[in-house]
Design brief:
The chain is mainly α. It has 16 helices and two strands. Helix 11 packs across helix 13 and helix 13 runs antiparallel to helix 16.
Length: 346
């Protein structure tokens, strides 16, 4: 199944509450990947990444320990800034995204290869974080959502422009993935669903519930960058079995690994379950065939037979009874009586 064809309901990541100026600085077009590259021998690889700015380290040689230099995030790639120490201004390095955390790359400059820094996700946009490497703390980059995968954007920081990363959609919220980079695995951010489209951390791709469906969603084609989380109408549900989560449309009958083994239900229990799938307040009544099927699957063969008799009678009398359950019981009394006596012999 493609990444796009699965809807995954995961524990949501915490909504972004505070944003530094670094996260909202407008990214100037054309800055590209210019600026001096950091040579491997300029970085003390033994110390860089130990969370202590020492041993000759500085903001331009080890931003993961020392933070980004002053001016990084102003939209201009100048002086000692480069893709290795200021991806927000200079864009990510060309090697970022090759699935290897190469020399010169760190979690501060290439989350796609090196994973997210330990502090990413603590709701504080630290000195070593930016919209390019930790949007969950720093917010979306200014260009995210313009339809073009710009220099500072990657699948990890702006999937709506760059597409989701390769591993996104496997059912597991792995290192480097969060509600921004991979909603199909990690779920939408917590603020999604409050009825307010916050451009700092939401757009039609990240939160269609608040911001509306993106253009093209609903045309019947699940095409990039659509996913099951951003366009369920085209891409279907994001359920993955097995992944330890009993998700939408999964039941004990179709995914016991996630939902547990089924305990056979009696006829009336299944009828009650199935009738709950029918909205009798609508005219004509609306119902989910999948919901009914999932209920019926929980009974043994004899029980399923008698459930069919009750449901067939109930559906046939809906035009007469409408949403009056007492009327349905009266019209289908014999079927209910047979259902009541049904049992499963083990």
């Amino acid at each position: 199944m493609s990444n796009a064809a699965r809807l995954i309901i995961r524990p949501s990541f915490i909504a972004v509450l505070g944003v530094s100026a670094l996260s909202v600085a407008a990214l100037a077009g054309g800055c590209g990947r210019s600026g001096p590259l950091i040579e491997d021998n300029d970085i003390n690889t033994e110390d860089c990444g130990n969370s202590i700015c020492d041993g000759g380290e500085a903001c331009d040689t080890c931003p993961v320990d020392c933070g980004f230099c002053e001016g990084c995030g102003d939209g201009t790639c100048v002086n000692q800034e480069s893709c290795s120490n200021c991806p927000a201004d200079c864009g990510v390095c060309e090697s970022c995204g090759n699935a290897a955390c190469d020399a010169g790359e760190t979690c501060a400059t290439c989350v796609q290869d090196c994973g997210a820094c330990a502090s990413c996700g603590d709701l504080v946009c630290d000195a070593s974080e930016s919209c390019a490497t930790c949007p969950v703390d720093c917010g979306l980059c200014a260009t995210c959502g313009n339809g073009a995968c710009d220099a500072a954007e990657t699948c990890a920081s702006c999937p709506s422009d760059c597409g989701v990363c390769t591993n996104c959609g496997n059912g597991f919220c792995e290192s480097g993935e969060d509600c921004f980079s991979c909603a199909p695995d990690c779920g939408v951010c917590q603020s999604c669903g409050n009825g307010v489209c916050n451009p700092q951390n939401e757009d039609c791709f990240l939160c269609p519930e608040d911001c509306g469906q993106c253009e093209g969603c609903g045309n019947g084609l699940c095409s990039a960058p659509e996913t099951c989380a951003s366009c369920q109408t085209d891409c279907g549900v994001c359920s993955v079995c097995p992944n330890g989560q009993c998700e939408d449309f999964e039941t004990c009958a179709i995914c016991p690994q996630d939902c547990g083994q089924c305990e056979p239900l009696g006829c009336l229990e299944i009828v009650t379950c199935a009738l709950g799938c029918i909205d009798l307040n609508q005219n004509p009544p609306e119902f989910s065939i999948t919901c009914v099927a999932n209920c019926v699957s929980l009974g043994c063969a004899d029980v399923q037979f008698f459930v069919d008799q009750v449901l067939n009678c109930a559906v046939a009398n809906l035009p007469t009874c409408g949403g009056d359950f007492g009327c349905i019981q009266s019209e289908c009394g014999e079927e209910f009586a047979a259902c009541l006596n049904a049992n499963c012999t083990q």
